[in-house]
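Note to self: keep these together.
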Amino acid sequence: MPRRPGSSGSAAGPEREAFRLGLRPSLNARWLEHSARRTAAPRTLEGVILGIDTSLGTAVAVVEADGVVRSEASSDNPLGHAEAIGTLLQTALADAARGPIGQTSAAEPVTLTHVAAGMGPGPFTGLRVGIAAARAFALARDLPVVAVPSHDAAALAVILGAALADPFGDDERFAIVTDARRREFAYSIYDGIDDDGIPLRVEGPALVPRDAIDAVLADHGARRHDVTAISAAMIGALAARAVAAGRTLTGPEPLYLRAPDVTLPAGPKRVSA
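Structure:
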């Protein structure tokens, strides 16, 4: 079922603050200055990103350029992506018109400027549903698509959570670990965040047998973070940072990491005379 998290009046504040805390000090000043220049009550918002991810469950969010989450709808079901994506898109877009999560305001138009697609790693069938939906939505509205590694979005959530807990804490090497099925995990290792506010990935994404994951992470000195859902809001926030920095986070090809479970037949066999 779709979810719109956060109902208290302060929900939007931590999202905005978390986004800023994830940046280096020089970037903090730049983003704070940018936010101060924005009008108090714009009739049409600029720099608004639709984030979509189906690498684990199905998630859709609308995020402003400064990281404020206007809406988020998701389903934890690891199956049924095609059935869920349409309803979640409708929910997220309708909720976005009502203002940031946790705030109550009159509906106002939201002008999307980009569509961000979570590129995995993830299972073939589920992952391609979200990517196809993002591309179709963008094509119909003549919007650019920003490709975002799903593990990078999860890493951003970890970094922002740590920054909120201790703004002056040291960066810690850590790993994002997700279920890749077939008795394997997918993992990516991160070592802090760069000056554009983008997590520094130093290894992965890669596959590893489940019984070997702890040894692999120990070799890299990385703390393990098991992730069961990817936030579309973090997909959008990371896309906003990439767009602001003029950077490409990954190519247009999905990060499947392995061939699909179902393959095309080799073709008809030749029959000798």
